[in-house]
Amino acid sequence: MTAQPLLDVRDLTVEFTTRRGIVKAVQHVNISVAKGETLAIVGESGSGKSVTSYAVMRILDRAGRIAEGSVMFSGIDVKAASEDQLRDLRGREVSMIFQNPRAALNPIRKVGDQIEDVLRTHVQQAQVRDHGEKAIEALEQVKIARPRERYHAYPFELSGGMCQRVVIALALACNPQLLIADEPTTGLDVTTQKAVMDLIVELTRRRAMSTILITHDLGLAAAYCDRVVVMEKGRVVETAKAADIFANPQHPYTKKLMRATPRLGVSLRDLLPEEESAAASFASPRVRGEADTRSTASGESQPLLLVDKLVKEYPRQGATAVLGKLFGRKPPVEPEMFRAVDGISFAIGHGESVGLVGESGCGKSTTSMMVMRLLDQSSGLIRFDGEDIGGIAPASFARLPQRSRIQMVFQDPTDSLNPRFTAARAIADPLLQLGDIRGRDALRARCEELATMVGLPHNLLDRFPHQLSGGQKARVGIARAIALHPKLVILDEPTAALDVSVQAVVLNLLQDLKARLGMSYLFVSHDLNVVRLLCDRVIVMRTGRIVEEGSSEQVLRDPRDDYTKELLTAIPHPPLPVH
Amino acid sequence: MLTMIGKRLMFAIPSLIGVVIVTFLLTRALPGDPAAYFAGPAATKEAVEQIRKKLGLDKPLIEQFFRYTNDLAHGDFGNSLTTGQPVAAEIRNRLPASAELTLLGLIVSVVIAIPLGVLAATRPGSWIDHLCRVTTTAGVSLPVFFTGLVLVYVFYFRLGWSPAPLGRLDVFYSAPPTVTGFYLIDTLIARDLEAFRSALSQLILPATTLAIFSLAPIARMTRASMLAVLASEFVRTARASGLSPATVIVTYAFRNAMLPVITTLSMVFSFLLGANVLVEKVFAWPGIGSYAVEALISSDFAPVQGFVLTMAVMYVLLNLVIDILYGVIDPRVRLEG
């Protein structure tokens, strides 16, 4: 390390004034970044990693303030600097990339204009001939094809990955010395994530910039950073070289995080902290045996779900086509159809769990919606438990008895719960709609039974969603889905919004429930690593078609299709810890 | 753009037909017999019958309706029973009076409310935020006739600064030749500055009354919408890029915050245009609201139908203008046009 670090954060404490008094979000944090260094700050939600970076740029919310400590950036005292000095610093010396690229851009301003706004603020007119040309150059550097055209695009016209490139162009337009990237790839597909991260690394290396990468993903930190800072509950618990921290984690929290990160060569049980893992492995052989007998017993009979040549088409034209027809002006030009799902066939056996993997727009969600009977297919067959449910209109399916046999766990545990329902009411909802349990006491008893099954303490049943943590809300969602003894549960990225340690627990819970209740799962996800842990078989989808299908182990260890290979290599892996 | 406007206007036709049918039926269903009202309290039964025949009210409903629509197609809105004047002419005279008053009131209100809302949002908890809250609460809680009367009492009766609240012009001036129907504009066209001053001084009090009332929804909406946008991620990005506060607030926050404000504005405008009867009464303003209410009380069909139809057309046009404005501000709306 050089004598004078570019950024030196000493003893930083950040306080937020809330209704319940002062909350210390970050306490006594020491971080330093040398010139040209790439530093990762890793931690789960609430660890204070984002707040630390906001404090560095002094863009904390109104309620937050730096209570103690100092932030020095190349000799400038950020804490004492005036707002005018800071404005010169932001964007020109230190810039930032945010989590949700689409939300980070002004939705009603051309992306080129937004880059120009930054250039105009920081670069004197005399130094460049034309800000517009400079903005196009900035777009070119982040490898946006046809930058001259894209200059005039609005954010909603660009894909998520493309928007993130624009945000990077915006951040790097004025050649800053330090780039802070706050979860820059969360919400992007793995292949897009790889492209974006490679781009950031390439651009920052070339300019000898320093980078702070804030992430919850240890794999990402390991793959791209020189040093790693691990934060927990507002404190730094460990700082070490990237290579060292994975080989030899010191702090218990770091070890726990490492264990919980899904990676090659580990089973679901290995994700849990050691003591819990040991307790769970007692149960697991029995569980395995049970599942095995079930699948062999039903082996000769027909599968639980059979999907054959399923197609979903959407008309490409929007409202104009409808209008044209209405007024009979133009005969509609050949109806151009877009096939979201293009003739896919697969089966799910009794007690089997199948992963449906693919990147956004591959048709995996459309498929699950059709199986769920929330959406009508264009053609194709869906047989469930020997019955043809594909012919039942989605509108009437909700009232049929079959509804209770196919249930769903949704992606966002917060948004999928009614904010005005308590946990108990949410769990009881399917029972009230379709169940045969009547009477307040019987319902309550069933809710408590379900809560026990998903490991939700009974005293939490009377709380509202906003009073529950992410993991607890996920448990409520699962309890609601299994309330009616379904045979098939569709899991739509049930852990995508959860921290890794919570994800580990929830995945284990799902595994146990499946074995105990003899359910089948259709696990829809973009994350091959997570799917592998829970599923017997994996189906990989791309542009509406199945490109590969096989047992989880086989697909992950020996993928045949090029696209699957691409997906697998895009996943950043932490080096395997030495036990 | 033109095709979009054309399409929107075409879509308005069914609703206008609906308005014609419903107003026709509603006015017929109203309690009260226009023939009896018109004949006066002392009229004999025969006289009432005679008038009924003359008005065509003895014919079956369906025939009356066809006659009415046929007249409408020829631009004839019928004649008012109470004044004997053609409804179309009356509305043509009175609509500009209402529109001028409402527009001026709204402009005054926007000029005050939007900066107030923006300032309150950028400095939450400051004195200007409290001022905004007090003003808006006062604005909505005071009924317009009350603020109108207070203004008349203070500025005309006590201070004598403003002229008598009797219509659009002082009696000493003659109305300017009609070009737009807006006296402020017509007097300027006629280069009659004295009349302009008189028209303006007559307008100030009622326009202020309306402004005080409409201040509240606009300022509140501006404040709320600005607060939401200021907390959004792209504003944070703009701040993190070191853009000046002026750029952040105007280019990034304000333009995005305008969308709900424009919707509120259009609602307030259409509401005021037809519903400021009380203000028109207090200031003896020859507007369209008071005209419609008087006609309604005397079961005078034709003006009521004419009024409702005019308002419906105004709503359609107003909504079109709002949609176009939306498209200008928000590129995402443009696509769907």
Explain this structure:
The complex is a heterodimer of chains A (579) and B (337). Chain A is globular and about 75 Å long. Chain A is 39% helix and 23% strand. In chain A, helix 19 (500-517) links the parallel strand 17 (488-492) and strand 18. Chain A has 579 residues and is an alpha/beta fold. Chain B has one domain (87-334): MetI-like fold (Orthogonal Bundle). In chain B, helix 5 runs antiparallel to helix 6 and helix 9 (193-230) packs across helix 11 (245-275). Chains A and B meet through helix 2, helix 4, helix 7 and helix 13 of A and helix 10, helix 11 and helix 15 of B. Chain A: GO terms for molecular function: ATP binding; ATP hydrolysis activity. Chain A: Involved in beta-(1-->2)glucan export. Transmembrane domains (TMD) form a pore in the inner membrane and the ATP-binding domain (NBD) is responsible for energy generation.
List the defining traits of the structure above:
heterodimer; A: 579 residues; Rossmann fold; six-stranded mixed beta sheet; 22 helices; globular; B: 337 residues; 15 helices
CATH topology title of the domain at 351-376 and 392-570 in chain A: Rossmann fold
Number of domains as seen in the coordinates of chain B? 1
The residue fraction in helices of chain A comes out at: 25-40%
Distance between the termini of chain A: 30 Å
CATH superfamily of the domain at 351-376 and 392-570 in chain A: P-loop containing nucleotide triphosphate hydrolases
Largest sheet of chain B: none
Largest interface, Cβ cutoff 8 Å: A-B, 35 and 26 residues
How many DSSP E strands of chain B?
A: 0
Number of continuous helical runs of chain A: 22
CATH class category of chain B: Mainly Alpha
* Major pleated sheet of chain A: 6 strands, mixed
Q: Per CATH, what is the topology of chain B?
A: MetI-like fold
Give the N-terminus to C-terminus distance of chain B in angstroms.
Answer: 8 Å
User: Helix amount of chain B, in percent?
Assistant: over 70%
Q: Can you say what the CATH homologous superfamily of chain B is?
A: MetI-like
Oligomer: heterodimer
Secondary-structure element series of chain B:
HHHHHHHHHHHHHHH
Main location (chain A): membrane
Protein name (chain A): ABC transporter ATP-binding protein
Function (chain A): Involved in beta-(1-->2)glucan export. Transmembrane domains (TMD) form a pore in the inner membrane and the ATP-binding domain (NBD) is responsible for energy generation.
GO molecular function (chain A): ATP binding; ATP hydrolysis activity
